Amino acid sequence: MENKNEFNPFMKRLNKKAKVKKVIAIMSGKGGVGKSFVTSALAVNMARKGYNVAIMDADITGPSIPQAFNIHGQTYATEDQLIIPSRSKSGIQVMSLNLLLDDETKPVIWRGPVLADMIGQFWSDVYWQDVDYMFVDMPPGTGDVPLTVFQSLPVDGVVIVTSPQDLVSMIVGKAVTMVNEMHLPITGIVENMSYFKCPDCGHIHHIFGESHIDALAKKYDIDTIAKLPIDPEIAKLVDEGKIEALNHDELDGLSEKILKM
Ligand SMILES: Nc1ncnc2c1ncn2[C@@H]1O[C@H](COP(=O)(O)OP(=O)(O)OP(=O)(O)O)[C@@H](O)[C@H]1O
Asked: Where along this sequence does the record place binding of ATP (predicted)?
């Protein structure tokens, strides 16, 4: 099915007030590889370049974006009942289910169709303000919600996040196949937790095994790759809600590719 096809019956429309120019979905074949971190870091990178950036947290049952930006509490609505996205310190617009819950520690135990509906509402019922680039943090895997995002949002590109573990090559294959079947372009592939650089001797350690990303990129004909180190500072900044203070430039190449889209 052509995602951008105007006859796609699943495609949701933005409300009249909202403006979003480009949509980039961030997916991973499996959980815990750092997809939410990469989403946040990419958003920060693009915001630093002066663009209006937004994050839609579509990882509905495990929303972690508000924590990384230290955004908590209730969201507000406009007079015509559109939800106003929260803003991070540097002005990134964020919409996440956690911002709509009375108690953000309560688990969300909804079934697929309700989750799918929520994604539609995050697109249609939110007052997205002049967004140049929206990054959509998807739940891990190739299930219901990623399918809904691909079918109902006008996705311009997909970033796939992996880790170096062996199993991942098979799992990445599933993610790539899903994106190809949706006729969407893969913007790039990010290997997170790729290596650890010893702060004392500078030696590079491959904690999770040797990198497979170059071979994977070649196999699937993906030209933009990024390798991110394991860095305790990353975990600390995410935990403290200070992701906007991140000082890594490994995603610059991916940002450049996104700017050329
Ligand atoms: N390169 C890194 N170095 C150190 N810690 C990292 C790195 N990347 C991610 N982390 C930490 O690993 C944990 C998992 O990361 P994250 O939540 O981004 O993964 P995810 O793939 O989005 O998970 P989920 O499958 O739950 O959606 C977080 O605590 C995060 O701060």
From this structure: 29-36
